[in-house]
Amino acid sequence: MSQSYDRGLVENFGRWTEFSAGMWAWVFHKFTGWVLIGYLFTHIAVLSTAIEGASMYNGTLQGLEALLIVRFMEVGLLAVAVFHILNGVRLLFVDLGLGLDAQDKSFYASLILTGAIAVASIPTFLGGAF
Amino acid sequence: MAEHYTSFSRDDTRWLLQRVTAVFLVGVLAFHFMLLHFVHHAYEITLAGTTARMSQPGYFITMVSFLIAGTFHGVNGVYNALVNQGIEGTPRTIVKYGLIIVSLLLIAQGIRVAWAMTGGQLI
Amino acid sequence: MTLHEHDVIVVGAGGAGLRAAIAANEAGADVALVTKLHPVRSHTGAAEGGINAALRDGDSWEDHAYDTMKGSDYLGDAPAVETLCQDSPEETIQLEHWGMAFSREDDGRVSQRPFGGLSFPRTTYAGAETGHHLLHTMYEQVVKRGIQVYDEQYVTDLAVTDHEDPEDRVCQGCIGYDIKTGQLNGFVANNGVVIATGGPGQMYAHTTNAVAQTGDGQAMAYRAGVPLQDMEFVQFHPTTLPSTGVLISEGVRGEGGILYNSNGERFMFEYGYANNDGELASRDVVARAEVTEVNEGRGYENDAVHLDMRHLGEERITDRLENIIHLATDFEGVDPLEEPMPVKPGQHYAMGGIETDENGETCIDGLYAAGECACVSVHGANRLGGNALPELIVFGARAGRHAASEDGAGAQIETGSSARIETADIDVPTELGRVETGSDDAVADGGELHSGSPKEVVNRALEQQRERVETLMETDGINHADVRSDLQETMTENVNVFRNEAGLKQALKDIRACRERYQEVGVSDPSRTFNTDLMHTIETRNLIDQAEVLTLGALARTEFRGAHWRQSHQERKDEEWLKHTMVAWNDGAPELYYTDVLLEGESKKYEPKVRSY
Amino acid sequence: MSTHVSESESEAQAGTDQQTTDRPAAQQRRLEKKRASNDQREQADSSTETDEETVHLKVFRYDPEVKDKQEPRFDDFHVPAKKGMTVLDALIYSRDHYDSSLTFRHSCRQAICGSDALFINGSQRLGCQTQIDELDQPVRVEPLPHQEVVKDLVVDMEHFYDQMDTVEPYFQEEDLPSGLDEQRQDRENREKIKMSTRCIWCGACMSSCNIAAGGNYLGPAAINKAYRFVMDEREGEDLKQQRLETIEEEQGVWRCQTQFSCTNVCPKDIPLTEHIQELKREAVKNNLKFW
Ligand SMILES: Cc1cc2nc3c(=O)[nH]c(=O)nc-3n(C[C@H](O)[C@H](O)[C@H](O)COP(=O)(O)OP(=O)(O)OC[C@H]3O[C@@H](n4cnc5c(N)ncnc54)[C@H](O)[C@@H]3O)c2cc1C
Ligand code: HEM
Ligand code: SF4
Ligand code: F3S
Ligand code: FES
C-alpha cells in the first residue's frame, strides 16, 4: 500500500474549538475527577496530623485556613466537587437511558448551577478570613 | 478479517461499582461538605470537635465507607482514564498494581487517622 | 501486476453480485467479488419500494407473471418472467431467513403493500429503505461465508478468447485496476465470470442513479461480443429533484400531492394528459406531460414543475411521508411543508442490457450477467415497480449457481446471433463503432480478444490494459468530463421521454462526435494513488458505447411500446415489432438485428392485450 | 474577483523545475496547459459572475506521490452558486471544471451509500446531504479526522471495516423454519431494531469519537451493529449471550464515555449513545443473574 498521511495528535487535541457539549462534559468530568482524587490524598495527609496530637492538628488546620489562598482554593474545590456531582448525576441518568435527548441541556444546566453554587458559597468560605 | 479481541477481562463489575459508589458518594459528600463547611466552618475545626464526631460509631463507619468508596471510585476512574488513553502491556500492569497499592495505603492510613481521631473513645 | 485465481469471479457487488457470490459459494466454488465500490456502497441501497413476491393466500406466481407480462407491454420473455415469479417467493423468504429487517404484520409475518400495475398487494418491503436492507443483509452473509472481496477494484475489461464467432469464445477472467494503489491485477476465473455492474444511468444528465452507474459491465460484455438487448427501453421517473435527481416516491402523489405548472394550473387535468387519473397516471404519461409543459414555456427554472403537498396538512405529511421532508430539505433546500417541491423527470431504470438466458448465461462460454445490467428479459418494454429487486436475487442466484457448476436445467431462451430472426436495415446518419485511427486503439477500444491458455489470455489482456492505462496517463489530452457532459446533454435532449427521427439522428451524430473527441482524452492527475480521474475517463468510454446502442435501437423501433415513445408512431405495432432489438459490436462494426419474443409460457401463452390500467 | 487558483498554485509553479525531473515531459506539459486553461475558464467565470453568486470552498489536498501535494495544503475553489446546491455538488463542479485531480469518494448523491462523510466546517457530515447555503463561508472541507488520509479527501476505511467485522455482523440463527415459512417477529421488536439497521457505514460517528481516535475501541458503529443483532429476537438466547460477550470485551462498550458526538453527527439519526448505554445495562443485567 502506498503511504498515507497521519494527521496525528493535532486530530485529538487540536480541534477543541469544535467540541460539542458531550465532549466538554467529558473533559470537565475528567478534570474534576482528577482534582478530587488528588484532593482526597492531600486531605488524608493533612488529617494525619491528628495522630500527632491536638495541637499539631489544630495548628495545621487553622494555619491553613488562615491563608487566603487556601480559602480561594476551597471555593475552587467546592466548584469542582459540585460540577463533578451534578455531571456525575447527569451521567448516571445517561447510564439509565433517561433524558438522553436533553444531554446537552443538562450539561449546560450543571455548569450554570455549579457557577451559582460556587458564587453563593463565597461568603461562607471567606467568612472570617479577613 | 479482523482478529478478535482475546482479552476477556470483562469490565462490567468495575463499571457497575463506579456507578454504585457514585450514588453513595453523592449523599455522603454532600453531607460532608454541609457539615464541615457550612454547619461547622472549616476554620473553626478542632480536634476536640472531630473526636466528638468520630466517636459516634455511625459517623465513624460512614466516614470509613466514604473513604473506601471515594478511593475506589477515584482510583478506578483514574485507571479507566489511562486505559482509554491507550496504555497497554507492561506499563498498564505496573499502573494497575501501583494504583492498587496506593489505594490500600491511602485507606490504611485513613483508617489509622480516623481511629486516632476517635481518641480511643469509640464505643 | 498480480494474478488472482478463483473458480468464479463476480464483477460488481450490488444486490445481484452479492447474491451470485453467495450462490456460487454454496455450490462449492471458490468465489471472489471484484467491485469498484465497497459492496455496501452499491446503488441497490437506494431502492425504496419493495420486492414483488407472491407469498400469500389468494396470490399466485401465475398472477405475478401475468401482471409482469402485461406491464412489459408483451416484450418480456415468458420463460424468464415465469422463472422470476416462481423463484421470487423462495428467494424473498431466504432474505428473511438471513435476518433482513422486513416490516411486519401483527401476526409477525412480513408486510406486503400494493404497487402500481400489480393485481395483488405483493410488494414485500422494509420501511422506505428496502434496497438498503437487502444490500446489507446480503453483504452480511458474504462476510459470514468469508467470501473474498476485492473492493475499490475497478474492472476495466474482460479476458475473452479471440474466436471469430462470439458463440465460440470463452471468458477466462477479467482485469481489475486497484484504485487505491494504481496497480492492475489479473483475475483468472476457472469456471466463470458473472457481471453484475448495475445500470447505466450516467448516460443521462439527470438520473436517479448513482454516479457510479456507468454500465461498465454492459460495455465490456458488448465489446467482448455479447449483444445488448432492448436498450432503447429506459424508464424515466416523473418526480425527481432537479438539482440532484433524488427520487420523490410515487407515495406523494398517491397521498394526494398535486402537480402544478408555472401558471399555477393543475396541468394533468387542464391540458388533458390524463383526465381520469390525473397525477396518478402511469410514470411515462406523467413524465411526458411534465416535459410538454416545460417545452411549452410553462415550467419553472431548472426545467421543473411543482409538486405540492402542503394541502395534505403537516400531520398527515409527517405521519406518512416523513422521509420526503428530509429528502427535499437535504437535497433541494426546499421545505415541502412551506413551499412546493420542484420536480422533473429523470432517468431511472434501464430495461435493456446484456443478453442472457434464464440461467444468466450469455452467448460467450463462462460469461454470465445478472441484475440491472442484464436483460433476461423480464421487464420487456417497461419495468413494474418492485420487480427489479426480485430480479437481482432470482437471477443473481441462478447465475452464481450456474457459473459454479455447469449442471442444471438447460435454458429455453436462446442467446447469441443464432437466435437472430432478421437483420435490421435502417438508415444511420453517421458511421458507428470503432474510430479507425490505426494507432492508439488501446485507448479507444478498451479491449481486445486474445488466444492461448486461460492464464495466457488473462495475461495478454492485462498487458493490453496496462498499455491502455499508460497511454491515458501520458496523453496530453482533453478532460473526459467535457466529453461526458456533451454526451449526457444530447441524450437528455434527444433520447429522452420524447423521441423523433430527427432528434435520434442528431443524437447519433453527437455521440459520434463524442467518440471522436474521446480519442483525445488524457488523464491529467499524474498520481497512481486513488486516481479517480483515470477511472472516470474509462467509464466515459463505456457510456459512449452504450449511448450509441441505445439510440440505434430507439431509431430502429418505429412504434410506441412501454417506455419507448416515437412522435410519428404513436401506437404499439404487434405485427411488426413484437421482437427484441439486439446490437452486436462485431469487432467494432455495430450490427442491429432482431430476435423473437417468447410469449409461450409453461402452461399458457400470453396474448398481447392493450396496456391500460 | 478572486480566482480559484490559490497561493499553493504559485508554490506549485515555483517547484516546477523539481517536478520535471520525476514526471514525464508530456505530463508536465499537460499539467501546465491544464492550468492555463483553468485560468482562462476562471476568467470566463469571473466576468459573468459576481461575488455573491459564488461559493468559496477551501479543500484539503494531499497526495503522497505528487511533489507539491506531499505537504498537505488547502486549495480554494470558487463555484457558481445554485439553489439547492450541496457540498458534494460543489466538489464535483470543482473537479470537473477546475482540477480533475481533486479526489473524493461519492456515489449515490442521496445519503445512502455512505461514501462521502467529510469534515465540513468542523463537523462530520455527508457532503451530499449538506446544503451549502446553510454553511458559513468559506466552506472548509477536510477528510474525516482520526483516519489516515490516502489522498485529498479520501481516508483509509480499513480500520472501520475491521471493527465492523469484529462484532460478527451477520445473522446466525441455525434453527430456521422450513420452506416458505418465515421467522415470526413482532412489530415491537422490529421497531426496536429499526433505527440500528439504518447505518450506512459512513464512519462519521467513529471519526467524531475521541475515544475511538487512535485506539482500538470498537466504536459506535460496530457496537450499534451488535445492538442490531443482540436485540433481534429472531436470534436465540445463546447467540445473544455470545454477542454480549463480544461487545463486553476490553475494547467494547465499557470504553464509551458517553460523549454523544457520535449521536450528534450520525446522518441517519441513529441514537448511538442510547444503544451503547442499553447494551451496557443489558450486559450488567446479564451478568448479575438475579436482576
Ligand atoms: C432510486 C431508486 C429506487 C429504486 N427502487 C426500486 C424498488 O423499490 N423496487 C425494485 O424492485 N427496484 C428498484 N430500483 C431498481 C433497483 O434498485 C436496481 O435495478 C438494482 O438495485 C440494481 O442492482 P444491481 O445489483 O444490478 O446493481 P448495483 O446495485 O448498481 O451494483 C453495481 C455493482 O457493480 C459494481 N461495478 C460497477 N462497475 C464496475 C466495474 N467496472 N468494475 C467493478 N465493479 C463495478 C459496483 O461497485 C456495484 O457494486 C430502484 C432504483 C433506484 C435508482
Ligand atoms: C459525589 C458524587 C460523585 C459522583 C456522582 C461521581 C460520579 C462519577 C461518575 C459517574 C464517574 C464515571 C464517569 C465515566 O466513567 O464515564 C466518575 C468518574 C470519576 N470520579 Fe466521580 N463522582 C463523585 C465523587 C467523586 C469523588 C469524591 C472523587 C474523588 C475522590 C471522584 C473522582 C472521580 C474520578 C477520578 C473519576 C474518573 C474521571 C475520569 O474519567 O478521568 N468522584 N465520577
Ligand atoms: S452509525 Fe451513523 S455515523 Fe456511524 S457509520 Fe452508521 S450511519 Fe454513519
Ligand atoms: S462519541 Fe464515543 S464516547 Fe461513546 S457516546 Fe459516542 S461512542
Ligand atoms: S454520495 Fe452516497 S452518501 Fe453521499
TrEMBL record, chain A:
> What are this entry's molecular-function GO terms?
electron transfer activity; metal ion binding
Alphabetical GO CC annotations of the entry are:
membrane
Question: Where does it mainly reside?
Answer: membrane
Is Membrane given among the entry's keywords? yes
**Native source species:** Halocatena pleomorpha
PANTHER family with a match to the protein in the record: SUCCINATE DEHYDROGENASE 2 MEMBRANE SUBUNIT SDHC, SUCCINATE DEHYDROGENASE HYDROPHOBIC MEMBRANE ANCHOR SUBUNIT
Q: Does the keyword Transmembrane helix feature in the UniProt annotation? A: yes
Q: What is this protein called?
A: Succinate dehydrogenase, cytochrome b556 subunit
Which superkingdom? Archaea
What would be one Pfam family of this protein? Sdh_cyt
The regions listed as transmembrane in this protein's record are 31-51, 63-86, 106-126
Arranged from A to Z, the UniProt key words for this protein are: Heme, Iron, Membrane, Metal-binding, Transmembrane, Transmembrane helix
Protein localization? Membrane
Q: What's a BP term from Gene Ontology annotated to this protein?
A: tricarboxylic acid cycle
What's the encoding gene here?
sdhC
From TrEMBL, chain B:
User: What are the recorded GO MF terms, alphabetically?
Assistant: metal ion binding
Task: From the UniProt annotation, give the residues forming the signal peptide.
Answer: none
Give the GO cellular component terms, alphabetically: membrane
Where would you find this protein in the cell?
A: Membrane
Q: Which Pfam families match?
A: Sdh_cyt
Record-linked Gene3D superfamilies = Fumarate reductase/succinate dehydrogenase, transmembrane subunit
Q: Which residues cross the membrane?
A: 20-39, 59-82, 94-115
Q: What is this protein called in UniProt?
A: Succinate dehydrogenase
Organism, as annotated: Halocatena pleomorpha
UniProtKB/TrEMBL annotation, chain C:
Q: Which GO terms describe its cellular component?
A: membrane
What's the protein's topology in the membrane? Peripheral membrane protein
Q: Which UniProt keywords apply?
A: Electron transport, FAD, Flavoprotein, Membrane, Oxidoreductase, Transport
Q: InterPro entries, per this entry? A: FAD-dep_OxRdtase_2_FAD-bd, FAD/NAD-bd_sf, FRD_SDH_FAD_BS, Fum_R/Succ_DH_flav-like_C_sf, Fum_Rdtase/Succ_DH_flav-like_C, SdhA/FrdA/AprA, Succ_DH/fumarate_Rdtase_cat_sf
> What residues form the catalytic site here?
283 (proton acceptor)
Any GO molecular function: succinate dehydrogenase (quinone) activity
Tell me its family: Belongs to the FAD-dependent oxidoreductase 2 family. FRD/SDH subfamily.
What is this protein's record name? succinate dehydrogenase
Organism, scientific name: Halocatena pleomorpha
Show the taxonomic lineage: Archaea, Methanobacteriati, Methanobacteriota, Stenosarchaea group, Halobacteria
From TrEMBL, chain D:
Ranges annotated as biased composition (Polar residues): 1-22
Kindly state which keywords UniProt assigns to this record, in alphabetical order: 2Fe-2S, 4Fe-4S, Iron, Iron-sulfur, Metal-binding, Oxidoreductase
- Residue intervals of the 4Fe-4S ferredoxin-type domain: 197-270
Q: Where is the Succinate dehydogenase/fumarate reductase N-terminal domain?
A: 56-161
The pathway this protein participates in, as annotated, is: Carbohydrate metabolism; tricarboxylic acid cycle
Q: Which cofactor does it need?
A: [3Fe-4S] cluster; [4Fe-4S] cluster; [2Fe-2S] cluster
UniProt GO MF annotations: 2 iron, 2 sulfur cluster binding; 4 iron, 4 sulfur cluster binding; electron transfer activity; metal ion binding; oxidoreductase activity
| Basic and acidic residues bias spans | 34-44
Q: Does the keyword 4Fe-4S apply?
A: yes
Q: Where is this region: Disordered?
A: 1-55
GO BP terms? respiratory electron transport chain; tricarboxylic acid cycle
Q: In terms of domain of life, where is this protein from? A: Archaea
Query: Which NCBIfam families does the record match to this protein?
Result: dhsB (TIGR00384), PRK05950.1 (NF004616)
Protein family? Belongs to the succinate dehydrogenase/fumarate reductase iron-sulfur protein family.
> How is this protein named in the record?
Succinate dehydrogenase/fumarate reductase iron-sulfur subunit
From which organism does this entry originate?
Answer: Halocatena pleomorpha
Classification from the root reads: Archaea, Methanobacteriati, Methanobacteriota, Stenosarchaea group, Halobacteria
